Amino acid sequence: MSNKNRRRNNKRNNNANKQNNSVNTKKVEKVEAIDYTEGITVKDLADKINQSPADIIKLLFMMGTMVTINTSLDDETVELICMEYDITPTKVEEKEEFTLEDDIVDDAESLKQRPAIVTIMGHVDHGKTTTLDTIRKTDVVSDEFGGITQHIGAYQINYKGQKITFLDTPGHEAFTAMRARGAQVTDLVIVVVAADDGVMPQTREAIDHAKAAKVPLIVAINKIDKPDKNIDRIYSEFSELNIIPEAWGGDTVFAEISARTGEGINDLLETVLVAAELEELKANPDRTAVGTVIEAKLDKGRGPVATLLVQKGTLKQGDPIVVGTSFGRVRKMVDHRGTELNEALPSMPVEIIGLSEVPIAGDLFKVFEEEKDARAIADKRNIARVEAERNQTSALSLDDLSQQIADGTIQDINVILKADVQGSAEAVKSSLERLDVGDGDVRINVIRATVGGITENDIMLAAASNALIIGFNIRPTMAIRKTAEEQGIEIRLYNVIYKAIEAMELAMKGMLAPEYEDIVFGQAEVRELYKVSKIGTIAGCMVTGGKMVSGSSVRLLRDGAVVYEGTMGSLKRFQNDAKEVATGFECGITIDNFNDLKEGDIIESHGEIEIDRE
Ligand code: GDP
Question: Residue 9 — pLDDT band, cuts 50, 70, 90?
Fold first, then answer.
């Protein structure tokens, strides 16, 4: 069933339900007061107040909110319901037993210096990737190993006996995505700006990001090997943005580099070390590890693979771990050279395998003493996540829903997106959300975008939120296909981004209420008039442009002005009715309820046609 039909059916059912909406307020045993915790579900509240969940669902329905037995209720709704039953609710704080927040307090003596974690940002083509590559190559250790460097989303170099970690995902998406999820992993931002180009929109964005994250910023003026470099211009452009170079009496270091020739790179690294020292970056290495996911993907051979950045403690091979909602043991751990490691210290990025599912960049991870604890907590977190996602989408107000459909103002297409790698998931998500067809009255709402195959969970969420599932570079199992079919969930698979976008664009057009435009079909000049009793005035005409269309709307023009608007009564070629008469042909035309025609009048045949929103 299409979304539209499903919605229609919903609407129909809702209307049917409306007929029978008396709320059963029969009280089994009078409850006077209850305690509840944030986000209590309909079912749990029903239990507490001794009512059936169905009654609460009905009650809320009457108030215009659709909920299911598992919907979490906000405080206001809990109060409303309680008021209805004359019960006093008291909210109590829930003890969060399954967060991945770090609950260990490290005392000052335990803290040791840790390497700085650096992000490189800047405008496209200003040399972020080249700079990252050149810096990576300065690492003699890498050369000695002769290993093939792999892209794992971050790397660590050794410079003059000190380590520096670089996040190896240039561009702002990764950084913003992580910050949006509350992850703060960067200690320092290097803004790369091309000496021959100057401050551009993404340069400004990079500065804003660094400011928002409250981390120090170093400017690397790149491409100084170019003859048309203009350092002064760059100084002044940055100064205008209140980033004043040291050379001009400010406090921002501007390093001049050529990522291509390697000139100035050592100075840049030196600057990073100095800045890092000022920041006094420290962490306790002697404890269980916590940190953040930098990147994650599904590998055909190895299963879920995640790059973790250790922020506190030491991550060890074999550690039981919860990563986002995924859990497992650190089965194998490698650095960006592919070298297998037994442990990873603070600020170190490592790629691990051994997780139950693919986490999301920005997810926190935490090591547990026991694998069974890890599993239990991951399970709880999973349930909480599914719950949160469902509530986000299903607590739709009935009024809103039917209103939207009735007047066609907003028609959201809910989409669940599954992709092979985080990068594609983000890319497809942002392209879809940016899709705009005409008036922007149909929107795509990506309610989940994650890495990995389609799961039962996805289907549940799709069913709960009237969503369709888009798979990018993944194939669903037969079992999943079957479940989806049973639930009436549409799965669409793509392996090229633009194909996915194109298809959604079409879907959006399909969902749009057709748009009509009035167009002129043609004009005919009145040459002779025949008065026929019973019929009225017949105008003998010559079609002078376009065509006359039988039954169409007409305008009567006299000396360029519209003197009458109405409907064509009949259109004849000789004695016969015609559907259309083209330019250059004679025809007889009558106008419904109008006889006051004159020779020389122009009859314009026009009408509305459905137009393509292109
Ligand atoms: P990104 O989009 O910021 O990652 O930029 P890239 O690192 O891909 O660089 C964009 C282009 O600029 C590439 O063609 C590079 O070879 C070139 N480029 C980067 N750094 C330098 C440099 O220091 N000097 C010169 N002449 N070209 C550079």
Answer: very low
In the chain, the amino acid numbered 297 is: K
221 φ/ψ angles, rounded to the nearest 5 degrees: -85, 110
Does ligand 1 have an atom closer than 6 angstroms to the CB of 126? yes
Interval 357-410: pLDDT, tens: 888 888 889 999 888 888 888 888 777 776 665 544 433 333 443 444 445 554
Our answer on whether the CB atom of 133 is closer than 6 Å to any ligand 1 atom is no
CA dihedral of residues 273, 275, 277, 280 (deg, nearest 10): -140
Rounded to the nearest 5°, which phi and psi values hold at 331? Answer: -75, -40
Q: Mean pLDDT across the chain, nearest whole number?
A: 82
- Between the CA of 269 and the centroid of ligand 1 the distance, in Å, is 19
Atom of ligand 1 nearest to the CA of 131: 7
Residue 177 CA to ligand 1 center (angstroms) comes to: 25
Can you tell me the distance from the alpha carbon of 183 to that of 361, in angstroms, rounded to the nearest whole number?
Answer: 9
Count the Cβ atoms, other than its own, within 10 Å of residue 168. 25
**Per residue in 291-340, pLDDT tens?**
999 988 888 888 899 999 999 999 999 999 999 888 899 999 999 988 99
- Rounded Cα–Cα distance for residues 450 and 215 (Å): 29
What is the CB-side half-sphere exposure of residue 393 using CA atoms within 13 A? 22
Atom of ligand 1 nearest to the CA of 257: 23
Q: For residue 301, count CB atoms less than 10 angstroms from its CB and return exposed for 0-12, middle for 13-18, buried for 19 or more.
A: exposed
Three-class SS of residue 238?
A: helix
> Strand pairing partners for 281?
none
The 3-class SS string of 291-350 reads EEEEEEEEECCCEEEEEEEEEECEEECCCEEEECCEEEEEEEEECCCCCECCEECCCCEE
Residues 467, 462: Cα–Cα separation, whole Å = 4
Query: Is the distance from the beta carbon of residue 263 to the nearest atom of ligand 1 less than 6 Å?
Result: no
User: How far, in Å, is the centroid of ligand 1 from the Cα of 126?
Assistant: 6
Question: 331, 353 in Cβ contact below 8 A?
Answer: yes
Dist. CA 134 → ligand 1 center (Å): 11
* Residue type at 381 in one-letter notation: R
Mean pLDDT score, 573-592: 92
Q: What is the DSSP string of 448-501?
A: EEEESS--HHHHHHHHHTTEEEEEES----HHHHHHHHHHT--EEEESSHHHHH
Spatial contact of 349 and 289, defined as CB atoms under 8 Å apart = no
Which residues does 499 contact at the CB level (< 8 Å), separation at least 6? none
| Span of 157-171, 354-368, 437-451 with lowest mean pLDDT | 437-451
User: CA 246, CA 391: separation in Å to the nearest integer?
Assistant: 52
Neighbours of 252 (CB within 10 A): 18
Ligand 1 within 6 A of CB of 125: yes
